[in-house]
């Protein structure tokens, strides 16, 4: 009788140990599966919108635009302005900046209207007035003379007033308005084009 009880107890103990072992193994496998699933989620994260492969194309505002310009250059003896056609590519609507660059390179037989070293600091068009801020070299490197002054000023004015929406030009020197930026011609107010100086 006692031996029978011992056998039952031994059997129950072995069965209990087996159950505990099986349960422990299941929990371990479940833990590993959860961790593996978590690792897979980390490595398959989709690209963010800022990734180079999904970036937006450049805005059309930065693309170059071809523009035809009519510029006016002083003739050899400084008595008149002569029209010249140029085709340029500009971006961000920097047409006036492109015009100043072209005015520095006159056609053969014509003179550059800008004093050497002149830099266009800024150009703003508002209410039909193009306000230009020029560097100090515009005045300090100007050779002098009333005829040369007319040619220099109106080469710029007549060229820029050819642009749509521009009726006059206000000159500034390093951002400051001048009564006579080159000596005698009144530049305290915006200047309109002077067709009488143009040789047809």
From TrEMBL:
Residues 1-24 form the signal peptide. Residues 31-61 are annotated as: Disordered. Residues 96-182 form the GerMN domain. Keywords: Signal. It comes from Desulfosporosinus acididurans. It comes from the Bacteria. This is Sporulation and spore germination. Pfam families: Germane (PF10646).
């Amino acid at each position: 009788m006692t031996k029978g009880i011992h056998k039952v107890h031994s059997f129950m103990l072995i069965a209990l140990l087996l159950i505990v072992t099986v349960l422990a193994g299941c929990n371990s496998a479940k833990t590993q599966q959860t961790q593996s699933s978590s690792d897979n989620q980390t490595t398959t994260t989709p690209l963010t919108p800022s990734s180079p492969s999904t970036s937006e194309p450049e805005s059309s505002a930065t693309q170059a635009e071809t523009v035809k310009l009519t510029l006016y250059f002083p003739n050899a003896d400084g008595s008149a302005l002569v029209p010249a056609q140029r085709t340029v590519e500009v971006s961000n609507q920097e047409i006036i900046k492109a015009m100043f660059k072209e005015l520095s390179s006159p056609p053969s037989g014509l003179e550059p209207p800008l004093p050497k070293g002149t830099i266009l600091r800024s150009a703003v068009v508002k209410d039909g007035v193009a306000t230009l801020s020029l560097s100090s070299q515009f005045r300090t490197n100007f050779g002098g003379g009333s005829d040369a002054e007319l040619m220099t000023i109106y080469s710029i004015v007549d060229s820029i007033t050819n642009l749509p929406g521009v009726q006059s030009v206000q000159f500034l020197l390093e951002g400051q308005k001048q009564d006579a930026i080159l000596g005698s011609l009144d530049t305290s107010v915006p200047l309109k084009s002077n067709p009488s100086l143009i040789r047809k």
